[in-house]
Structure formats: C-alpha cells, structure tokens
Amino acid sequence: MVIYVDADACPVKTEIERVGTRHRLRVVIVSNGGIRPSENPLVETVIVPEGPDEADKWIADRAGSGDVVITGDIPLAAKCVAAGAQVLKHDGEALNAENIGNVLATRDLMADLRAADPFRQGGGRGFTKADRSRFLDALERAVRRAGR
C-alpha cells in the first residue's frame, strides 16, 4: 500500500506524513517543485517536469488497488477510482465509484457557469480546523480499509 499525494496546494501534507509514519506506509509526495523534501525515510518526494497535469499523470500511472490517493483534482480522482484506489479530498470527502460521476458532472457544470460569467466573483470557502480533523479521520479509515 502506498499513499500518493497530489501535493501542489495540498494543505494536509503534515497530517498525511504523520498517518503514514504511524502505519509504516510509504508516502509519495508528487509536485512540479517548490516542495521541501521530508527527512522521513518513509516519505519520497517526486518532482515531475513542468507542464499541465504532469503530477496527475504520474500518480494515475501508478495508483491502483490497495493504494490511497489524496487529491483535490477531480479528473485525477476519477482515474484513480477506476484503477481501484481509495481517493480522499483534502477535507476528508471520499471519492468512489458511487459518487465520482456526480462530482465530475458538478465540476463541469461549475466550469461552464464560470465561463459564461467571467465577472462571477467568489471562490471556495477557507480550509478550517474541522476540515483538517475530518481529513485525519477519513485517512485513518481509508488506510485501515486498504490494509484489509
């Protein structure tokens, strides 16, 4: 079992490393750069070439059954779910075969709405302590499920 992390803009890298260390799991942090490598021997930092979706491609090519993937990228999540991996968003929301279709459709709808109204303001809500706590709980459960 490997925990793959789509690390660009990931607010829970420290929590992932802590859970990975507790369970003695390999954690692979993948980014385009700008991430300080961990000194933890269980944590591998992979820097992929610059370019759109290079980190996503790297993870999608490797993640499979028994692995856990942490990402906020919905198309990457869909590929990993199809490969049999467990997928968590940064707030602890699990993405799986039952909900990934709806999540993809919602993402596409919101992209269309933003494109139709370029002056539309707003972004997502801020990342909270509750999100961090929910993520930690979800990651613990995902690691235990993957270990079965």
Key phrases:
148 residues, 6-stranded mixed beta sheet, 5 helices, globular, 6 strands, 43% helix, alpha/beta
Protein model, in words:
With about 150 residues, the protein is α/β, with parallel strands linked by helices. The protein is about 45% helix and about 15% strand. It has a 6-stranded mixed beta sheet with strand order 3-2-1-4-5-6, sandwiched between helices. Helix 3 runs antiparallel to helix 4.
Topology:
Layout: E1 2-6, H1 13-22, E2 26-31, E3 43-47, H2 54-62, E4 68-70, H3 74-82, E5 86-88, E6 94-95, H4 100-116, H5 129-146
Helix pairs in contact: 3-4
How far apart are the first and last residues' alpha carbons, in Å?
A: 10 Å
Q: What is the succession of H and E elements?
A: EHEEHEHEEHH
Q: How many strand segments? A: 6
Gross morphology: globular
Distinct helical segment count = 5
Hey, roughly how much beta strand do the residues contain?
15-25%
The averaged pLDDT comes out at: 89
Tell me the major beta sheet: 6 strands, mixed
Strand order in the sheet with the most strands: 3-2-1-4-5-6
Structural class: alpha/beta
As a percent range, the share of helical residues equals 40-55%
Contiguous low-pLDDT stretches (5 residues minimum) are none
Q: Specify Rg, calculated over alpha carbons.
A: 15 Å
